[in-house]
């Protein structure tokens, strides 16, 4: 069986770290509220002039280095973002150029916080379909650029960053011991637009707009839909929650993560957690978490890893893989 295996991970976080206390004299909020309601303690914000493609290029280079590859070995780039440098070209093409790549394809995927899950499933299908041997899959965001800094219910929750993985075709023996992506489950329901959206865009206001969210409603959908999509993907792979070694969830909120793990019957020790240090970095949060866990050698070859995310759309999904 031809499978797509993650052979390298990398990430980049902007230098500037902002602690919860930074918001206390700007808004009617406290470190205590942010910490207990979201699990977030600090986040990184991109510097002025630092664009999504800059973060993404550094994460991609780190993933190439860890895989022992160079840009010339890559057939394509799929990049998930909702905060692109420009309306076009795709951020992926700027990363391509930044890496010195002059061949292959490069395009963006937009599924907000579920973007990396969608991009990874997309790249996996291309690899299994024979369109590519090696694909860089990246999640990169600068959500600080679309925050309403007067809205305490959103601006304290998000951060900037980028994560990347190298996804590579490998021929396995077809046994259950095969490494690589085993299954995916993707969903969207545009009827939920008003729960989470940005109130600007080129074809409407002509502005970038600001993020608007009905947090408590998103929360309720998240817990229910994330547990369901993870179960569906596991079932497709012929696995059960008991087989899972690591859950790598989208890092939006510690309470959503805990409730989802509980519904899946997973102890919190099996969950990779970065939300305290990164905040919600949207499409970047999962590849960031994968890279942090991989850098600490916590993921062992053969481990069953479930990744899952939900975001604006609503769009949600999961991918099951054997590390
Ligand atoms: N500091 C102090 N008080 C606050 C703050 C703040 N920063 N923000 C909101 N509050 C207040 C509210 O005004 C409200 O006050 P009220 O009761 O007087 O009206 C109170 O706290 C409770 O507000 P809720 O919204 O009900 O609080 P909740 O416990 O639901 O927590 C939160 C809010 C953290 C936003 C939560 O709902 C959440 O995490 N939702 C999910 C968000 C998410 O994960 N989005 C995911 C995808 S993001 C993407 O796709 C881009």
Automatic annotation (TrEMBL):
The active site is at residues 113, 250, 280. CDD domains: KAS_III. Keywords: Acyltransferase, Cytoplasm, Fatty acid biosynthesis, Fatty acid metabolism, Lipid biosynthesis, Lipid metabolism, Multifunctional enzyme, Transferase. It catalyses: malonyl-[ACP] + acetyl-CoA + H(+) = 3-oxobutanoyl-[ACP] + CO2 + CoA. InterPro entries: ACP_syn_III_C (IPR013747), ACP_syn_III_N (IPR013751), FabH (IPR004655). Residues 251-255 are annotated as: ACP-binding. It is found in: Cytoplasm. Residues 234-323 form the Beta-ketoacyl-[acyl-carrier-protein] synthase III C-terminal domain. Its EC number is 2.3.1.180. Pathway: Lipid metabolism; fatty acid biosynthesis. Pfam families: ACP_syn_III (PF08545), ACP_syn_III_C (PF08541). Residues 107-190 form the Beta-ketoacyl-[acyl-carrier-protein] synthase III N-terminal domain. Belongs to the thiolase-like superfamily. FabH family. The last Arg residue of the ACP-binding site is essential for the weak association between ACP/AcpP and FabH. Homodimer. Catalyzes the condensation reaction of fatty acid synthesis by the addition to an acyl acceptor of two carbons from malonyl-ACP. Catalyzes the first condensation reaction which initiates fatty acid synthesis and may therefore play a role in governing the total rate of fatty acid production. Possesses both acetoacetyl-ACP synthase and acetyl transacylase activities. Its substrate specificity determines the biosynthesis of branched-chain and/or straight-chain of fatty acids. This is Beta-ketoacyl-[acyl-carrier-protein] synthase III. It comes from Paracoccus marinaquae. The lineage of its organism: Bacteria, Pseudomonadati, Pseudomonadota, Alphaproteobacteria, Rhodobacterales.
